[in-house]
């Protein structure tokens, strides 16, 4: 089994979904919060997150780019349906990437303190909730985006909605407004608690 070092800041932002995939998959991993900016020149592209893998035969592999790291781990840990077609993989990744449209303004106003980004966040989360409720309804309102198993898309929704809720922005997706998304959250949460 591979072991991993996951390098990111002690913040819930671009590294959060990879952290949750590592936790959910019960991978053997440790987190490192590098000294910044001292460690910046030592990163592949000067930014975080970065994943360092050591394979069972001792071979090393390093990856940067948050969404690439997530997908690498999601493939390794079975978070796409078995034998998924390229179309199914693409749909799962499309559902996940939707959350970046909301995460970006969220990071801008919570971490970079740009107050006017809050309005963009509010407008984008409202739109996402409306669209994703339809997608989840079309999959049978069963707590999953695709089929009846937990995929990368489900863990993405759980991760980012929890992140927004923990930051005090859960009003946009209450049970009443977003029953489908709340079902995804509770389905994934059950597995996390095991
Ligand atoms: N496209 C990159 C962006 C990474 C990024 O913006 N990382 C920020 C933290 S969220 C960073 O390293 N900031 C410190 C810096 O740029 O010096 C990704 O998705 O991983």
From TrEMBL:
PROSITE patterns: GST_CTER, GST_NTER. One of its GO terms (molecular function) is glutathione transferase activity. Residues 2-81 form the GST N-terminal domain. Residues 85-194 form the GST C-terminal domain. SUPFAM superfamilies: GST C-terminal domain-like (SSF47616), Thioredoxin-like (SSF52833). GO terms for biological process: glutathione metabolic process. It comes from the Eukaryota. PANTHER family: GLUTATHIONE S-TRANSFERASE. This is Glutathione S-transferase. It comes from Mycoemilia scoparia.
């Amino acid at each position: 089994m591979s072991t991993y070092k996951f390098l990111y800041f002690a913040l819930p932002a671009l590294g959060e979904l990879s952290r949750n995939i590592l936790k959910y998959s019960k991978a053997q991993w440790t987190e490192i919060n590098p000294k910044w900016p001292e460690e910046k020149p030592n990163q592949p592209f000067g930014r975080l997150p970065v994943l360092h893998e050591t394979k069972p035969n001792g071979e090393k592999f390093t990856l940067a780019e948050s969404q690439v790291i997530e997908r690498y781990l999601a493939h390794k840990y079975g978070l796409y349906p078995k034998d998924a077609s390229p179309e199914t993989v693409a749909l799962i990744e499309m559902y996940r990437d939707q959350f970046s449209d909301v995460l970006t303004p969220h990071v801008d106003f919570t971490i970079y303190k740009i107050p006017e980004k809050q309005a963009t966040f509010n407008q984008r989360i409202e739109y996402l909730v409306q669209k994703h409720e339809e997608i989840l309804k079309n999959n049978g309102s069963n707590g999953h985006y695709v089929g009846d198993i937990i995929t990368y898309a489900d863990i993405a929704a759980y991760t980012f909605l929890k992140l927004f809720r923990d930051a005090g922005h859960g009003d946009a997706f209450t049970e009443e407004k977003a029953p489908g998304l709340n079902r995804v959250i509770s389905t994934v949460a059950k597995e996390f608690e095991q």
